[in-house]
Design brief:
Layout: E1 3-5, E2 10-14, H1 24-37, E3 43-47, H2 65-77, E4 82-85, E5 91-96, E6 99-104, E7 119-125, E8 131-137, H3 144-154, H4 159-170, H5 176-183
Length: 202
């Protein structure tokens, strides 16, 4: 699932690499979307499930090197503010080609090295364009039924799709099939998958 939304002066773009690859049609959509929209906004955050790199020494839980390079070529071209990813069940912070990369996979799954508490990230964007990312530790992980209920109650207009975006990013829902199972019977998507006039990814 690739889509974009743009509250205030910030563009958010979701890129689907959950199968550990960058499909050419999705990379094309990303490049076209950023070409059309990026200069209209002060900041641009791109988020995905699998990070382009794994910053841990000796680990390679990231995109294949050739896919990562194709993705980073698009992101470098469009002056991306920061990248957010999941997949690795830990909190890691680094930079790729000068672009800050925040990896957060600690929302409730089994944790990877370096071990740390379950957590989520809070990103605050200031009026002057600067942004801060803060890791918020979670003392207790509640069951999924409560999480789904809370998200439906707090975000009824977005439906469960908004929750699934968070869960996919965090690695709680590991695949499209699991996403479909989790959303069975949920209301249809309320977030835009494609911008009008930009055409389908495929």
């Amino acid at each position: 699932m690739t889509w974009r939304t743009a509250p205030a002066d910030t563009l958010f773009v979701a890129f689907d690499d959950a199968r550990k690859l960058c499909a050419p049609e999705d990379l094309g959509w990303l490049d076209r979307t950023l070409s059309l929209r990026r200069q209209q906004y002060r900041q641009c955050f791109v988020y995905m499930h699998v990070p382009p790199v794994d910053p841990r020494p000796g680990s390679r839980h990231a995109l294949p090197a050739d896919d990562a390079e194709r993705l980073m070529a698009v992101l470098r071209k469009h002056d991306i503010t920061a990248i957010f990813a999941g997949h690795i069940h830990s909190y890691l912070e680094t930079a790729v080609d000068g672009i800050p990369l925040y990896i957060t996979g600690g929302a409730g799954g089994t944790r990877d090295e370096p071990l740390g508490p379950h957590h989520y990230l809070l990103c605050e964007v200031r009026e002057d364009g600067r942004f801060d990312v803060r890791k918020v530790d979670v003392d207790e992980v509640t069951d999924n039924d409560y999480l789904e209920y809370a998200l439906r109650a707090k975000f009824p207009a977005q439906g469960i799709l908004a929750a699934a975006v968070v869960l996919l990013l965090a690695g709680v829902i590991p695949s499209r099939r699991a996403y479909v199972r989790a959303c069975r019977g949920a209301p249809g998507p309320q977030l835009p998958e494609r911008a009008p006039g930009e055409g389908p990814a495929a």
